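Example record

One chain of 204 residues, shown exactly as stored in the release files.
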Amino acid sequence: MPKQVRLRRGTTAQHATFTGADGEVTFDSTKKILVLHDGVTAGGKPIDGFVKLDPGAPLSVQEIKTLVTITGGDDDTNAFSVVHGASFNDVVINATAAVRRLRMLQEELTYASNVALNFATFGSKRLTLAGNVTFTATGFLYGSQLHLKIRCDGTGRTLSFPAGWKFVGSAAPSSIAADKTALLHLWTFGLTDADVVAHYLVEP
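Predicted structure tokens for this chain:
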């Protein structure tokens, strides 16, 4: 009968306080996975997936050299989300027969007297005014765009913008009339308010 080789084993809790020898491999009987050891790290390094990122070097290039399929999410929840910019050599979008659409996700902002527009999140936002508002900007990224739909309530409101923004086509608006809808387009070409170019349109 063939010989059987068995590794040292223990639960996840037992592994948490165990330091294996350098080069040793043990078996986590709770998670049913292998654990690699280096002789100094308590708990070792569990092999719990094929994609391992290095949190200590978030800007380093990390390659995945196999096909990746993401099956999570649904029509209302993203299965894949990129916080910062992304580069694609080629893009193929497959839509189901029931959906057949490419959606641009947008963010609904909560009214406050001071509203921060974050370039690093959704590029499309909407805001309903319930009072006067002062806009600021955060999350500056080179070449980013942001589109904001502004809906005024039943009272005319004043608008204030950072002094560094460059408005094109018309001067920065100081107010919006009651029950009007406006669009604010922003482009950032640097990392400060002075690098923001703005264009404002409002319904007549």
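Notes: The domain at 106-202 is CATH 2.60.120 (Jelly Rolls).
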